[in-house]
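yo

u said u wanted the structure for the complex thing, so here. seqs first:
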Amino acid sequence: MNGAGKTTTIRMLTCLSKPTGGEAYVCGHNVSTESALVKKAVGVSPQDTAVAENLTVRENLELMAKIYGFPHEKRNERVAEMQRMFKLDEVMEQRAKTLSGGWKRRVSIAMALISEPEVLFLDEPTLGLDVLARRELWSAIQSLKGSMTVILTTHYMEEAEQLSDRIAIMVNGKLRAVGTLSELEALTGEKGLENAFIKIAEAPEGGVNA
Amino acid sequence: MNRVLAFSGRNLKELLRDPLSYIFCLGFPLVMLVIMSIVNQSISPEAGMTIFNIENLAGGIAMFGQSFIMLFTCLSVSKDRSGAFLTRLYASPMKSVDFIAGYTLPVLALAVIQSVITFAASIIAGAVMEASTISAGGALMAVVVLIPGAVFFIAAGLLFGSLFNEKAAPGLCSIIISLASLLGCVWFDAEGSGGVMLDVCRALPFYHCVKAARMATVLEFSGIGIHFLIVAAYAVLFSVLASFVFQRKMRADLS
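structre next:
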């Protein structure tokens, strides 16, 4: 839902915003008191495309690898890995500002991944992309499964169904339900994520009746 | 240090790939140098006006060029703050000191190169017009003496870039660039006019920056120390202020 607090949650979990209350831990590290350790463990691709516009794709990737302190050989290795994983060959030497929205998103996610994070946060990664670009990005995100935890926010139900092992539904800053698609369907007695989502979102705070 | 060098490299590339950097940081000061040299040739010696003699003009134009470095620092910071790229870097292990050093180092290198080119062009212009009194040693000393001025302008750019958005920042910097050339006595002789104007000029760093550069150009070091120190003091003050404000703004961006 719009204004549910998805981006704010990601910002807090990646140490971009200070929580006003409570505690949160990422990979066992407190986001308020151990931000340096949290920052090393996470990668984030913000909602807006976060690339250096006047640098080439290769330079953008190298920049992030340098910032995370990778030595020369490891850096080249990671850049080559990202190039292969996101099929960036044709745009590697192109400046980021000349890329389409879909390519920029792919580069943005590759930049978040180059540091080998344990947890990758993707904030509405397919927002504004056409169908083809979205499908290509889905395939790239799916290829990450098994190698790290990916937390992805989205408004698209089909995207959540396709990509997620577990789905969390957030309303007014609170997680109303968390589970697999079949668990959410069982919880609401509805078929399909969209129906389950509507039932959860419209239910009064405190419970959903199947 | 790796993070500083990586971020500096990125900022340098962004600057060098922007054609406006060449036009404003290099082209405009050099054009002014040529125009003012031509103007100087049409002034009769009896007028006793020496402000546009190449040994005076070079230092003034060099300071004028540095003021554009402020504009570009300011634009880099304000542009980055308005986009998501900085958000990504805030979520990385980069610290505020890495950002400040990363913004400062490339433009400082650019400012020194700009001064070297301005003085090299001044030596050539002087030779062509058969009026050169700038030695290579004088030019070199002037470039060194101008470094605190460069630091001051960069710190001012960092400060305004942290405080204002990319729409407001260029306008403000344009006003300061105009004031710097006016109150730095690049185009007129404040000592000749005296009065309140001279007092105002002396209260600000621009006049002292130009004065120190002009003295170094002709290898006149008697009394240069006070001008150098005043500019250095402004540079330190603005650097501290810019660092403080940048860190505050970074924390505010993260809240």
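Strands of chain A lie at 25-26, 29-30, 42-45, 119-123, 149-153, 167-171, 174-179. Residues 23 and 33 of chain A are 10 Å apart (CA to CA).
cya
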